[in-house]
Amino acid sequence: MDTGVWRRARARAADDALDLTPVLEALLHAFADGRVTVTPPAGRSLGPTRDGTPRRGCRTGPLSHHVWSRADHRRAAAGVKSMPVLCELLLGGYVDGHLTTTLTATGHVPRTHREDDAA
After folding, report:
1. CA gap 80, 112 in Å, rounded
2. I want to staple 80 with a disulfide (CB 3.0 to 4.6 A). Which of 75, 95, 104, 108 is the partner?
3. Are 80 and 45 in contact (CB under 8 A)?
4. Which long-range contacts (CB under 8 A, 24 or more apart) does 15-22 make?
5. Angle formed by the axes of helices 20-32 and 83-95, nearest 10°
6. Does 119 score more than 50 pLDDT?
7. Could you report the per-residue pLDDT of 8-34, keeping only the tens digit for each?
8. 99 by DSSP, 3-state: which?
């Protein structure tokens, strides 16, 4: 993966008060479900990045094996060369603002002081 894309995605996730791992997992899940499509640029390979630097491994926390496997299956059917290329395309879309994530809280959320309570 292009480390520049990975760094920008990590920074964007931090700006969104999120860790990159759940962002990537949400994007892979959406791709696996068919809610997101990608079109890899023609001739895309895992050669040097756009600026000519070598590609490096980029790490996140552990991702769900189920989500990864489903995304990998759809990736192969869609003709995307590899999972690193898919991850780079998805994170690139997130960095560029073409893809967004939504944080959904489940369970009990403690009551906090809100402006509308002050009236």
Report:
1. 46
2. 75
3. no
4. 16/101, 16/103, 17/103, 18/101, 18/103, 19/61, 20/60, 21/60, 21/61, 21/62, 21/63, 22/101
5. 110
6. no
7. 999 999 998 888 999 999 999 999 999
8. coil
